[in-house]
């Protein structure tokens, strides 16, 4: 390239308002995140209308902070990248509207980015040598996918959840044992105090698809265990429940991923999504990859949560491929991976 390419990435798909400036798809110059977790804790989960209103309040601030932190002006930015799906429709609309307004006013190209592609692309930030193809396990509150990353922006889904996503199961079980929202980090922390072998919870397999996932049965098993203890007036060790539940989820995620890596001949495995920051999953995957001679990549926790840097990275590769969106770009709350 004759010059550095600077991408302004904007993310607002759920409860984080975020913006970032990324240089050449691998170097993060700024990464500003305004989280709404404390606000939504009051309600035990994300309230879409409240999330949308908070995005409106914060979007201009985080964009300005991202540019200031990166020490660049809007005139120096080459393109505006923004998440346009999947996610909460109202939240997405705030980011898309802001990105379109900025791109129009500054006369810059607009590049719509798939939120899950952003999570996958977060691996490129700290693993500079990572290049497709590789196998990636995507685990978040709304998605559990096992995908082949064939090239930048090109994916083949070989496994997906049939019901609850892993992160969704974490939130529901956390609520059932009284931990509240957000469930994933709280179960991860509490599980360190418990015995992961104290309770035998199921490891579900989907009969007609070796690499698909199902977590609703596991969630039901936890609820049944809790109800049974209540009926028998038996004490419940919440830490043991958390540890045993997490072990079940991790076992399934790791076993599916390792089996797929062997069958499809991949030597590199990556993790992506909010649940990729789970310490139990990281430890389990690291051990399994070492035992099977596989290389493992995953982002730092700050890049696992929703952030603008991952959108800037994904946006860079879309921009370099020539992807451009018009002023009719709209939010697509149910956008599928690989769709445009």
Automatic annotation (TrEMBL):
It is found in: Cytoplasm. SUPFAM superfamilies: Actin-like ATPase domain (SSF53067). GO terms for cellular component: cytoplasm. It is an enzyme of class 2 (transferase). Residues 27-312 form the Gcp-like domain. Belongs to the KAE1 / TsaD family. Binds 1 Fe(2+) ion per subunit. Gene3D superfamilies: 3.30.420.40. Keywords: Acyltransferase, Cytoplasm, Iron, Metal-binding, Transferase, tRNA processing. It catalyses: L-threonylcarbamoyladenylate + adenosine(37) in tRNA = N(6)-L-threonylcarbamoyladenosine(37) in tRNA + AMP + H(+). Fe cation binds at residues 115, 119, 306. This is tRNA N6-adenosine threonylcarbamoyltransferase. Its EC number is 2.3.1.234. Required for the formation of a threonylcarbamoyl group on adenosine at position 37 (t(6)A37) in tRNAs that read codons beginning with adenine. Is involved in the transfer of the threonylcarbamoyl moiety of threonylcarbamoyl-AMP (TC-AMP) to the N6 group of A37, together with TsaE and TsaB. TsaD likely plays a direct catalytic role in this reaction. InterPro entries: ATPase_NBD (IPR043129), Gcp-like_dom (IPR000905), KAE1/TsaD (IPR017861), TsaD (IPR022450). One of its GO terms (molecular function) is tRNA N(6)-L-threonylcarbamoyladenine synthase activity. It comes from Acetivibrio ethanolgignens.
